[in-house]
Write a structure and sequence with these properties.
Chain A contains three helices and five strands. Helices cover 42% and strands 31% of the residues of chain A. Chain A has a five-stranded antiparallel beta sheet with strand order 2-1-5-4-3, with helices on both faces. Chains A and B meet through helix 2 and strand 3 of A and helix 2 and strand 3 of B. Chains A, B: InterPro entries: Roadblock/LAMTOR2_dom (IPR004942).
């Protein structure tokens, strides 16, 4: 399965899936898949969260609680789950506010290693 | 129940609970409860995450996805869940890496409004 197909499978498997993207910590997107449904600006979201992931990574280093694995941000209108793939890349999944958060987390945890290998 | 007792009840109800604190976005802690078990620096954690919550709050405003409700950060050694109480305060729960993340999220969601009223 190509990267685009993997992203599509994740988004379409999870209830409320809006889009998914693989992104570098340098803010450069690798690939993305977005449903037709949304007014979601996945590109802008990825750039904003690239900054946040770097900030959280630094905080986690200060706190000495081990490597950053996952960040999630829930707002009134969305659920965003971000999973570290390796030191360079992370995976973002955006869900509707009533999306299946637990399943989204599970799919990212399951797929992140495979995506890392695909891009190695 | 006092604020300290509420924090204690949360930490002791959730499997793997290490500590909880109520914190202002200005970085000033209101109260905290910490189990004996840990080497956890809850004070430092709260200060680091106060900064992160402000950053994420700004990102969420840019993205126009509604009010920030919850942030979670999972690392190799810990699960941290942060729940907004109101515009001034938030609630942090720290769990061990094998702690019950779902129950922690549920308890914070349930208790945040009551804590907000207690401090109003």
């Amino acid at each position: 399965m190509s990267l685009r197909e993997t992203l599509k499978a994740i988004v379409e498997t999870v209830e409320g899936g809006l889009g998914a993207t693989v992104m570098g910590y340098d803010g450069i997107p690798i690939d993305e898949y977005l449903t037709d449904s949304g007014t979601l600006d996945l590109r802008l979201m990825a750039v904003e969260y690239a900054t946040i992931m770097k900030e959280v990574g630094s905080a986690v280093e200060v706190l000495k609680t081990g490597e950053l694995q996952e960040l999630s941000v829930n707002t009134a209108m969305s659920r965003v789950i971000i999973r570290a793939i390796n030191d360079d890349l992370f995976l973002i999944l955006a869900l509707a506010a009533d999306g299946n958060f637990g399943k989204g987390r599970y799919l990212l945890m399951r797929e992140a290693p495979a995506i890392g290998e695909l891009l190695a």
